[in-house]
Design a protein that fits this description.
Layout (H helix, E strand, L loop, with lengths): L10 H10 L3 E6 L5 E6 L2 E3 L2 E7 L3 H7 L3 E13 L13 E15 L3 H15 L13 H9 E16 L6 H14 L2 H12 L5
Antiparallel strand pairs: 1-2, 1-5, 3-4, 4-7, 5-6, 6-7
Amino acid sequence: MRRSQFRSTDPGDLREIMDRCEVGQLGIVAADGIPIPVPVNFVWHEGRVVFHGAAAGEKYRVMAEGARVSFSAALHYSLLAPSLLADVSACGTTQFYKSALVRGRGEVLVDPLQALAGLESLMRKYVPEGGYEPLSLASDQWGRLLRGTAVFAIQPLQVDVKVYMGQSMTPERRAVVIAALQRRGADLDLDTAREIARYAPPV
């Protein structure tokens, strides 16, 4: 990462991104040599990115080969637009965000227990209220699912978490931005204001 002031080593930031972000981008190199992003639902499970998909096709080929892949996920916070600060210049427009970039190796989870655990983790993330029949290796539902579905994992080689919360702003500018976000008062604005204050460099 070029600017180290935006790098986060807080495990809580990584967990927040992976828990709250609903769609991530799997980066693979297609058969024609062109890198492509593939949107996937995912979960951070036991230190790996886990997702599922068809047991055929380009994504399956890349993951089954154990190729190097990338994965990115981002959480958007408030957009600082000129209108918020009564500023006519477009140069001050800023998007606050947190992002994670995973570089690693793809794999297909062929162990039924690992695959089942990954799918259960996905269900807990996307359907936290429950209400569905639990997956079981002995159930017909599980057998039908496995016939056409693969469970994939990315074993990380490197994980970079970037947080932009105005760390490069002057203290005076930061105070103005926080006050403006609090004044606008949307839930996302209040969350952003708290995060900007949290990440303010020590004076």
